[in-house]
Amino acid sequence: MKSMALNDAVQRVITTEPTFEVTNAAIRGVNYKVFKNIPGHVRALMQASRERQGNGTAEYLVFGEERWTYDAFCAESNRIAHALSNELGIGKGDRVAIAMHNCPELLMLFTAIASVGAVTVFLNGWWTTEELDYALDDSGAKLVFADAERVRRLRPVEGEKGLIIIGVRDGVDLTENSYPALLALSTDDSWPQTGIDTDDDFAIMYSSGTTGHPKGVVQTHRGAMNAVFTWLMQASLAPLLDPPAPDAPEPPRPSVLVLTPLFHVTATHPVFLTSLPAGAKLALMGKWDAEEAVRIIRDEGVRRLVGVPTQSHDLMIAARAMNEPLPTLEFLAAGGAKRPAAQVGELARAFPNAQLATGWGMTETNAIGFGMSGPEYVDRPGSAGRLYPPLQAVKFVDDDGQEVPQGEIGEITVKSPCNMRCYLNKPEATAEVFQDGWLRTGDMGFIEPDGVITIVDRKKNIIIRGGENIACLDVEGALHRHPAVAEACVFSLPDDRLGEVVGAGVQLRSGMSATADEIRSYLADHIARFKIPEHIWFRDTPLPRGTTDKLDRRALRAECIETLTPKGPAT
């Protein structure tokens, strides 16, 4: 069989595989291309996936020594769904927050909440009490499932907000209510019957922006389902684009390691939700540990891994140190940030059996976007890839929203049914990024004649530290609260391992003093640890400004980078 051109392969799949048949649908007054025959919501996805699993006795979820078959996973999810409804009165549209590290209960809570038509509010596990407090106010969630560390952070606001905190895992002894006790109240493992419309909200995830507080991204069932089946369709396209040898064996069952936090869209959508219809086995890590990841990949025969670039690099170093070649690993993808170009070639040499891949997506797009894999990615490591077909469209626009010619740099703007519904409680911010269904991403780039997209810069002032988005203004706001700080400006600094780290220039108030360590200690009570500047420069004079009297972030960054030495943070 000869390889097909991409457009021909897309047409072959959508005309011969009913799952991927495409139609048009009006969503909030805008016409989009959508999949016609896919499940309309998360519960329907689970039901359809369960039917494809046959007897459901195959192992589905692995967490340390704990194991769940697909049947057992669905049964516990349904029992929790009925307990939420019958014992706690949770119904359609209610918002339920989750604040914890990765664990099986998080996945079952996520599907249970969606199955009764409620909305999961994902709280970043790194957040401080102040940041958690903001998101709970913003979302209106009063019920929170939390592990021990998050229970402790929620304690100071529990009473004033009237929160019901339900302890999970190591948090069960810290709260009056617990996940095991709630589960014990329900023996009904049948599918809930709540009516769910495909355009109903199903999740709120928080995404850093250029304003001080993160924005709640409201995702719908339709958006998530169309994203999931877009990824699944790529698997149907692969043998048409690169036909296997005639005597190639049947591909083994997919198996995936979940190593990024489940409060991020990278882990929930392309990994967890997509694993259900793909019939994949999931191995789940509570927190990132490169040596433990090597052991899990080896012992569980993990074939696919999707993480941030830092994790790929850490895994390579650990595998070398442990003398583990990891021969089962056949797909090693990175998202959240661009891999350094030199790292791509190094990974290709370290894992010759693995297809390297990169992907771009946003919380606002349900993680769908564009990507590239295999030899083409190794040859073009600076590129972000091609738009995943068949539902999306992309254009590049100037500041006025006018499309720029092919090859010229513009703001990447995407249209698809996977785009978010809105920013929660922020109609003006929503209107700023949406025009007639097109989402302005804030990323600057260009597209080549062969459809390959390259991202060159970010229009918004975001630092991506090991896959974590950090708003410069968020950190600056915390710095300005320090009594000795007169002025502060935050910027990204290059880092070999994390991609970027946080730097800051600070002018102190006249007659006052502070050290870098004192400022970092102060910030630890106000912002998450990963946002705290690793390098701080102090100036006696005002920070540089441009002609419009705005802080000149680029000039300050360049000035500070010149002073970096291998000795460590400048103070």
Task: Please provide a written account of the structure.
The protein has 571 residues and is an alpha/beta fold. Among the domains are: 42-219, Rossmann fold (3-Layer(aba) Sandwich); 462-561, ANL, C-terminal domain (GMP Synthetase, Chain A, domain 3). 34% of the residues lie in helices and 26% in strands. Strands 4-3-13-12-14-15-16-17-18 form a nine-stranded mixed β-sheet, sandwiched between helices. Strands 9-8-7-5-6-10-11-21 form an eight-stranded mixed β-sheet, sandwiched between helices. Strands 19, 20, 22, 23 and 24 form a five-stranded antiparallel β-sheet that branches. A hairpin with a 3-residue loop joins β27 and β28 (499-508). The radius of gyration is 24 Å and the shape is globular. Mean pLDDT is 92; it is low at 566-571.
Task: Give a quick summary of the entry.
With 571 residues, this protein is α/β, with parallel strands linked by helices. Helices cover 34% and strands 26% of the residues.
